[in-house]
From TrEMBL:
Protein name from the UniProt record: Substrate-binding domain-containing protein
Family named by the database record: Belongs to the PstS family.
PANTHER family: PHOSPHATE-BINDING PROTEIN PSTS (PTHR42996:SF1)
Upper classification of the organism: Bacteria, Pseudomonadati, Pseudomonadota, Gammaproteobacteria, Lysobacterales
Record domain PBP: where: 117-335
Record key words, sorted: Signal
Secretion signal span: 1-29
Length: 475
């Protein structure tokens, strides 16, 4: 077994080295344009993602994943532009969806500006922005999502591309979804992170609207306050993501798998929060407020007394005044999150996507791309990899990704690319997709790892290989 592991590592290093030599010989310096999920954005481009919707050029931090990628090859190294659109918009931009939807005045396109409209939707990755200067792009170089491709996403891509042009999807990093709060006790003192430890049951009851007041007796065990301090009878103001969000998908994946049936209803796994809780409350209560993007959500939490929210840990840590973050089941999203998160052949599948309908218990249901009505020439290559959501929904699951004792609310973030049409960006895109698994990159990244709320994944028994990933992209 040890010799087999050595052979795999040696082959990976050889494949990485060969690709690096080819890229080093290229003199095509360019900007790779993409965008998507806010959850790992601070890991991908650095601290500017906390305050800027589009981070590009020299604003990409040198210690971030994309910053390290830019500096690895002195000649021909790409720059990056990353627009924080959230999952739903990024999938539509990536697919090249040309139809209008509610609240939009323009179809999705990589060239559209990276700015929010009145509904909080972004319809482009800002490729034409001065400093990015990629007016040549007809499609994004990449997209990043925490909710993997579903059947509708795949059909959107197929219907806006030529026959046989497939999306590529591989997991890149893991992230912790924090339960943050803004609460003061009866003396007016801020309740702090060290004083709150929620159980899964309590999280389930809050987000199903069963517990609506902070002094509910069912929450009493969550607080460890100084003598003479208590929690006032104030309503729980829930802050949630109003846009289609991978952070929402990750929270709902956890809730659907651990909460079970509450008052004859279940949580639905979805990237739309109103769909997640629709079996319990519809519409959401007036004191539940939606925000577009994790950064906006974190800001809303900080500005709203007696509130609670789910937000990426990286963004919770990046606010000007760090948010208070609850432990969950006695584990912390900062101190008890950092890996290793190992992917083996039992943890993922190829050429399957999320079904638009969940299982009867609300958990995610997968389906083969070949079985989706309307799919033409389904892919046969091993280039669309999906980590089974149930295998990272809670720690310690047999064959799962999250070890026992790890913080339990976990996201798996993916990088999406185009199998064809990469043109002069091809070699740079190959390197980007394998960067999360290359020691030359990960050993130099400071924005992902212990203490950041983000973690790299490792490739275990019979997982995909670096050569396999890079081979999925052609001109």
């Amino acid at each position: 077994m040890i010799n087999g592991r050595i052979r795999r590592i040696t082959c990976a290093k050889m494949a990485w080295g060969a690709l690096a030599l080819v890229i080093a010989g290229s003199v095509h310096a360019t900007t790779l344009v993409g965008g998507g999920t806010t959850l790992p954005a601070l890991g991908y481009v650095g601290s500017n993602a906390a305050t800027q919707l589009q981070v590009f050029g020299t604003n990409v931090a040198s210690g971030s994943l994309f910053g390290v990628d830019s500096s690895t090859t002195p000649i021909g190294a790409p720059a990056f532009s990353y627009c924080e659109t959230g999952d739903d918009a990024s999938k539509n931009i990536f697919a090249g969806v040309t139809t209008y939807s509610s609240g939009l005045t323009t179809p999705y396109n990589v060239q559209n500006s990276c700015t929010k409209n009145a509904t909080g939707t972004i319809t482009g990755f800002g490729a034409a922005l001065s400093g990015v200067n990629r007016t040549d792009l007809a499609q994004p170089d990449f997209a990043a999502v925490d909710s993997p491709l579903n059947a509708s996403d795949y059909l959107n891509y197929q219907n806006n591309h030529t026959s046989g042009d497939y999306p590529v999807q591989f997991p890149a990093v893991a992230g912790a979804v924090a339960i943050a709060f803004n609460l003061r006790d009866n003396t007016g003192a801020q309740v702090t992170s060290s004083e709150v430890n929620l159980s899964d049951t309590q999280v389930c009851l809050i987000f199903s609207d069963q517990i609506t007041s902070w002094n509910d007796t069912r929450l009493a065990s969550a607080f460890t306050l100084p003598a003479g301090h208590s929690i006032p009878a104030n309503p729980i103001n829930v802050q949630y993501r109003s846009d289609g969000s991978g952070t929402t998908f990750s929270l709902s994946n956890h809730l659907a798998n651990v909460c079970g049936t509450i008052n004859s209803s279940v949580f639905e796994t979805s990237q739309a929060f109103t769909s997640v809780v629709a079996n319990f409350i519809n519409p959401v209560p007036t004191n539940w407020t939606g925000s577009s993007g994790d950064e906006s959500l974190a800001e809303a939490l900080g500005n709203t007394a007696n509130s609670i929210a789910y937000v990426s840990t990286a963004n919770a840590l990046a606010t000007n005044t760090p948010l208070q973050i609850a432990d969950v089941n006695g584990t912390n999203p900062v101190n008890d999150f950092g890996g290793p998160f190992t992917i083996t052949d039992t943890a993922f599948v190829y050429n399957e996507v999320m079904n638009t309908t969940n299982n009867t218990n609300g958990t995610a249901q997968l389906e083969a791309i070949s079985s989706i009505p309307g799919v033409v020439n389904p892919p046969t290559t091993s280039c669309i990899a999906l980590v089974k959501p149930a295998l990272y929904a809670k720690p310690g699951v047999s064959g799962g990704v999250v070890p026992t004792g790890t913080y339990p609310i976990v996201a798996i973030s993916y990088l999406l690319a185009n199998a064809e049409g990469n043109g002069a960006d091809l070699l740079h895109m190959k390197r980007l997709l394998i960067a999360p698994y290359g020691f030359n990159f990960t050993s130099r990244v400071t924005t992902i790892g212990p203490g950041t709320g983000l973690a790299f994944l490792t490739l275990g028994t019979n997982a995909f290989t670096i050569s396999q990933v890079s081979g999925c992209l052609v001109n």
